[in-house]
Amino acid sequence: MVNTVAQTESNGQVPAREERPARAEVDDESDAVATDPSHPWRHYQIEDGLPPEVEEAIVQDPPPVDEVWTAHTDGAWGTARAGAATIITSPTVRAAAFTARLEFQTTNNMAKYEAILLAL
């Protein structure tokens, strides 16, 4: 098995790609897959690490709390009908409410998922 967990430095930062230690040793079966040109899985080897653009996004600081939008969602199901509702609040604390009646057979959990989609 390949060790895919990124190691962190003492300050909690992920080291740059070129500073990372070499990939952990793999077991005999993985070595056989990597070295056997006729093995059907040879093209599906997992690389250690993330693409640079993903690493940059992870290391960046999150946006300040006063710039975050929030969405409160709920879905409800009954024997007669189902619905979904969401309230979206902007960073300036302006709220907008949206509701939808679901015109298809659904479960309570599906109604809740529809409410989340309504928020998006």
UniProtKB/TrEMBL annotation:
Region of interest (Disordered), ranges: 1-43
* Segments of skewed composition (Basic and acidic residues): 16-25
Compositional bias, Polar residues, is annotated for 1-13
- InterPro entries tied to this protein: RNaseH-like_sf, RNaseH_sf
- In terms of superkingdom, the source organism counts as Eukaryota
Gene3D superfamilies xrefs? Ribonuclease H-like superfamily/Ribonuclease H
Molecular function per GO: nucleic acid binding
Q: What is this protein's name?
A: Uncharacterized protein
Organism, as annotated: Oryza meyeriana var. granulata
